[in-house]
Amino acid sequence: MTFLLAVIVGALYAAGTYLVLRRSIVKVIFGLIFLGHAANLMIFTVGRLTKGVPAFVPEGAEMLTEPFADPLPQALILTSIVIGFGVQAFALVLFKRAYLTLGTEDLDKMRSTDQLPEERL
C-alpha cells in the first residue's frame, strides 16, 4: 500500500510540475491543484497507514500501543486542504483578472503589464 501511494505521489508531482510549466493559465491552475494533492498524500503516507486502528489511548494504559495512526499528519492535511483551497481560489481570480485585462491566456504573451493592448485603452 505504501509503495502504491509513493507511485501515485510521484505521478502527481510529475504531472503538477509539467502543468505548471505550460503556457496556459488553466493548465497552471490544474498543476497547482495536483501539487497540493501530492503534498497531502505524501504527508498522509508519512503518518503511517493503519486500517481500523484509531489513535486512542486504551483505558488504563499510559501510552499508545502499536499499531496506531499518527493524528498529527491528519490534522496537518486538514489544514493544508483549507490553505490549498484558498491559494487555488486566489490564483483563479488573479489569472481571470489578468485574462480580462490583457485579453490572452497565453503566459508568454503576458510579458508586459505596464502597457495595455491598444484595443483595451
TrEMBL record:
Compartments (UniProt record): Cell membrane
Protein's membrane topology: Multi-pass membrane protein
Pfam families linked to this entry: Oxidored_q2
Keywords: Cell membrane, Membrane, Transmembrane, Transmembrane helix
TM helices/strands, residue ranges: 6-21, 28-47, 75-95
Main location class: membrane
Signal peptide stretch: none
Keyword Aminoacyl-tRNA synthetase: no
Keyword rRNA processing in record: no
NCBIfam families: PRK12659.1 (NF009302)
PANTHER family: ANTIPORTER SUBUNIT MNHC2-RELATED (PTHR34583:SF2)
Protein name: Cation:proton antiporter
